[in-house]
């Protein structure tokens, strides 16, 4: 099969590229490199340096089909930043996706997998874990932008027959177990790599944004899904959308608190993590844990790296080997 990956130079996208290559498929990557890294794209994989805001350039790449599917990862993804600059997030994420979907329809693409988010749910503590049937109530403009794109895909299916898989995943973490790819955000905002860097003395004290949440230890609880397991879910989702569209939540189904992440990093690295308490961040729910029953039942997907220490270990080994990331 031949697939186009937008955002394929980013964290999740680059791991999905590896999963598709490992499965014997051909891939082409489109990325504007605003947050991705050219070196994250494996040698020999065709690469287009294109911004999805440019409809003509986007359409020109999509026209180079036929494609057995398109996988869309390119997006702004910081909840806190979206609270500070909501219109930028809403405009950027919506218009880039709209240009891509319109190009797919124009050039006869039949299948698209969309990187959606658990931020659609806004953190209803009464739901633990959260099923796909939960009421969508985004707690941030970032989450709202993803839901807007899901609605675009709904109408693209209803009117044009473009089948889609909207994968609402929770906290992607870890790194390729073979060391081929890892997490390198500039600046880094994700808890596990920040905690590892604090343990290694590469950054000042880790700041936990609030420890007064209604949880077992006062810190936020999240469902961490290993990025390799997440990538495998994308491969399996492609096989489900030949004649229908689907929506899946993806996670391990078990939540870990921020303080438990610190303890895991200390176990894996053998070092103490210096940390301090900061104020809560706007848009942060106290609890987000996924119910992935539908995905498991319909595709046979099972996470292989569900243990938090194993997730942290792969992230640690990659960051230890690549202290400057991809640079």
Automatic annotation (TrEMBL):
Segments forming domain NAD-dependent epimerase/dehydratase: 4-251
Iron recorded as keyword: no
Entry-linked CDD domains: UDP_G4E_1_SDR_e
Catalytic reactions on record: UDP-alpha-D-glucose = UDP-alpha-D-galactose
Pfam families (alphabetical): Epimerase
BP term (GO), one: galactose catabolic process via UDP-galactose, Leloir pathway
MF term (GO), any: UDP-glucose 4-epimerase activity
Pathway(s) where this gene product acts: Carbohydrate metabolism; galactose metabolism
Domain of life: Bacteria
Keywords attached to this entry: Carbohydrate metabolism, Isomerase, NAD
Enzyme Commission number(s) from the entry: 5.1.3.2
Cofactor(s) required, per the database record: NAD(+)
Family: Belongs to the NAD(P)-dependent epimerase/dehydratase family.
Quaternary organization: Homodimer.
Name of this chain's protein: UDP-glucose 4-epimerase
């Amino acid at each position: 099969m031949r697939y186009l990956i937008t955002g394929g130079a980013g964290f999740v996208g680059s791991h999905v590229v590896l999963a598709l290559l490992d499965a014997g498929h051909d891939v082409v990557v489109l990325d504007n490199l605003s947050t991705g890294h050219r070196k994250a794209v494996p040698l020999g994989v065709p690469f287009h340096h294109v911004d999805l805001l440019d409809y003509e350039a986007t359409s020109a790449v999509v026209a180079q089909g036929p494609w057995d599917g398109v996988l869309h990862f390119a997006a702004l993804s910081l909840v806190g930043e979206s609270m500070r600059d909501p219109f930028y997030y809403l405009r950027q994420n919506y218009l880039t996706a709209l240009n891509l979907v319109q190009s797919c329809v124009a050039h006869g693409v039949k299948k698209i997998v969309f990187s959606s988010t658990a931020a659609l749910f806004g953190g209803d503590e009464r739901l633990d874990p959260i099923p796909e049937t939960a009421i969508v109530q985004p707690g941030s403009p970032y989450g709202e932008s993803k839901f807007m794109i899901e609605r675009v895909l709904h109408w693209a299916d209803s009117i044009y027959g473009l089948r889609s898989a909207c994968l609402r995943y929770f906290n992607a973490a870890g790194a390729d177990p073979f060391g081929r790819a890892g997490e390198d955000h500039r600046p880094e905002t994700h808890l596990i790599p920040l905690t590892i860097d604090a343990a290694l003395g590469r950054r000042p004290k880790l700041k936990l944004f609030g420890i007064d949440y209604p949880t077992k230890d006062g810190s936020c609880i999240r469902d961490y899904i290993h990025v390799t397991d997440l990538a495998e879910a994308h491969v399996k989702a492609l096989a489900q959308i030949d004649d229908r569209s689907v929506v899946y939540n993806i996670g391990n189904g078990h939540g870990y608190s921020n303080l438990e992440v610190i303890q895991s990093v200390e176990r894996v690295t053998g070092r103490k993590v210096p940390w301090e308490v900061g104020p809560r961040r706007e848009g942060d729910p106290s609890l987000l844990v996924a119910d992935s029953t539908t995905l498991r039942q319909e595709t046979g997907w099972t996470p292989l790296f569900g243990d938090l220490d194993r997730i942290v270990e792969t992230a640690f080994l990659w960051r230890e080997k690549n202290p400057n990331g991809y640079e």
